[in-house]
Structure formats: structure tokens, C-alpha cells
Amino acid sequence: MPPSKRQxxxxxxxxxxxxALKDLRIKKGWTQSQLAANAGYGQNYVSNIETGKQxxxxxxxxxxxxxxxxxxxxxxxxxxxxxxxxPPGKNVRPKP
Length: 96
Known about the structure:
434 Repressor (Amino-terminal Domain)
């Protein structure tokens, strides 16, 4: 079967926003509880943000991101990057 020529769909802004926050937390090696405690929120609140059940204010996002040791502008840049179409990959197969 030939490889698919379909490009993966970029993430929506909401998906990218949540995924980027979760990625930062995981890279730091923290659980949701650790992030919540260090940022001054409840674990359920952080969970609800990551799962899209709650839309936080920017001040909350900035606090969470800074608690994770990242500048808010770099976080937003990562979010936007996730929403852009991915360049087509090179499907190179060795010739038999």
C-alpha cells in the first residue's frame, strides 16, 4: 500500500494551548499536583485546564508557565507553531 499523501491536520489553538502546557509540565518532570501546588492552584483546576474543561485567564496561564520555568512569550510561540500546517514530509523509499 503506498504511503498516504495526506498532511496531518494542524492542531486547533485550544488543542495546542493545552498540549503545550502539558508538554512543559512533563518535560519538567512534574505531575499535575506538583504544578498546582507550586503555582498555588488545586490539582483539579490544572487537570481541567489540560483537558479543556476549563478556560483559564491569561494571568493564570502566565503563572503556570512561569512556575514551569518558561517565559510566557516562548510558550505562546510554541502554541502558535503547533497550529501551523506541517511541511510535507519526504516519503523516500529505497528502490528495490
